[in-house]
Amino acid sequence: MFPVLGEVLSKRYRLDRVVGEGATSRVFAGYDQLLHREVAVKVLIVKASSTLADSAGKAKDEARLLAQLKHPHIVAIHDVGDTDAGAPFLVMELVSGLTLEEELQRSGSMSAERALALLLPVMGALACAHDRGIVHRDIKPQNMALEGIDSKKPRSKLFDFGVAQSGLGVEGGERAAIGTPAYMAPEQARAGEITAHTDVWALGVVLYRALSGNLPFEDTNVDELLTKIARERAPSLTARSRDVPMRIALAIDRALERQPHRRYADARAFAQALVASAQQDGVKLPSDPDPIGLPDFAAWLRSASIESTAQSSSKRPVPVAIRSETARRRTVWLAGGAALLVAALCGWWLSRPAAEAVHVERTPEQAQPALPTVGTIDRMPVRALEPAQPTASPLAPSLVDAGQSVASKPLKKPAAVNKPAKERAPRRAATPPAEATSGQAPALMLDWDG
Q1: CA neighbor of 84 nearest in space, from 10, 4, 6
Q2: Which of 79, 82, 131, 138 does the annotation list as catalytic?
Q3: Residue 66, SS3 per DSSP
Q4: Are 17 and 29 contacting, i.e. CB atoms less than 8 angstroms apart?
Q5: Residue 43 parent element (H or E)
Q6: Cβ 79 vs Cβ 32: under 8 Å
Q7: In this structure, are residues 165 and 190 in contact, taking their beta carbons and an 8 Å threshold?
Q8: Residue 377: helix, strand or coil by DSSP?
Q9: Which residues pair with 89 in a beta bridge?
Q10: What whole-number distance in Å separates Cα of residue 301 and Cα of residue 274?
Q11: Can you give the pLDDT of all 450 residues of the chain as single tens digits?
């Protein structure tokens, strides 16, 4: 049974108002009458299946964890005790302001710059917990307090380590799924092994919602919701929201891989990937979000800046850690384009008109008969040449003027081919006998027919 407002616990802590309530506890805003300061008092719920000793042990476990994780972005623990009814309670730092859940309900979503400014310090705090082997197991916006949310430099703090390594996952001898269903990892929904990868998944869901305004998995039925988380792949943030910078979205998609080993190893590795992605996307980052949990932040900025410059000058692809989704989409588009091109070529080939056969008939005059072989010289065939038909010329009927003498030996008449017998010999002009004996070579007159 919870204490009433105005009641003073351990004669010191006055309960003023209720500021929050969960499945296992109720949180009051109170006042420390000894040190004169405002505090938060978290009173645990004692279930029927649990004993007061068990509840007190869980409260002490949480107090010890918070004491170990002294960090500026983790709500500090002040005291632990029991109510008059025997219910355990914890006295913690009171953070004035809204929770991230209340801010998201008010604004719906936020820019990548603002989301990283609020969540990188929380990731640094969680990295310190992971360094000590502590898993929070209940990362969600309700457990992130925001101070000065409307100022230029808001501060965020992580609280509620009530189920972190506290043994609450085993009840009644059976393993139970502990956490908030919408932010549970697949192995957490199956009540499997819990590691730092589980918190990485929850951080990815918080960023997914902060940037897109939606959860990756939603269902009014808790059992159906857990079944989806355990069996289905998380919808890609790049496909869900076009306004989210591409490389940041790809980094968040990797944090939501179903297989734990395919996610980032811990919160610090996730933060480093987000810093590199923001640098490449041109998103402004805070100067120093957490020097304790993220001591190498400045080195990450320099390294990411050098890598971004080298990639822009050499046009290299996105690093393998965040380019799987881009490569898959590029492959799909290339394969689809190639298939369309092949289909278009096949359609053109099948639809083109068939070529018509062209047959050219040659006339007898155009036909060239084979020349007969009349002999061989040195084993090479010699073919008789058929003389061309002479054409009419104004120089006929004679080739040599009648008064010109021929000093060379007389011309031999060519063999007549395909001529009638009586037309084969040319007609020779009659020469007086006197001229034949005059001592000069007689003029030769030839008259060719045809």
Answers
A1: 10
A2: 138
A3: helix
A4: yes
A5: strand 37-44
A6: no
A7: no
A8: strand
A9: 43, 81
A10: 11
A11: 678 899 999 999 999 999 888 777 889 999 999 999 999 999 987 765 556 666 667 777 778 888 888 899 999 999 998 888 888 899 999 988 889 999 999 999 999 999 999 999 999 999 999 999 999 989 999 999 998 877 778 889 998 887 775 443 433 333 456 778 999 999 999 988 899 999 999 999 999 999 999 999 999 999 999 999 999 999 999 888 889 999 999 999 999 999 999 999 999 999 999 999 999 999 999 888 899 999 999 888 887 666 555 555 444 444 444 455 666 777 877 888 888 888 888 888 788 766 554 555 555 555 555 555 555 444 555 555 555 555 554 544 444 444 444 444 555 555 554 555 455 555 555 555 544 444 554 544 545 444
Alpha helices, H only, 213-283: 222-231, 237-240, 246-255, 267-281
Q: What 8-state DSSP symbol labels residue 142?
A: G
Would you call 237 helix, strand, or coil by DSSP? helix
Residue 138 is a catalytic residue: yes
- Which positions ≥6 away from 136 have C-beta within 8 Å? 126, 129, 158, 161, 163, 164, 199, 202
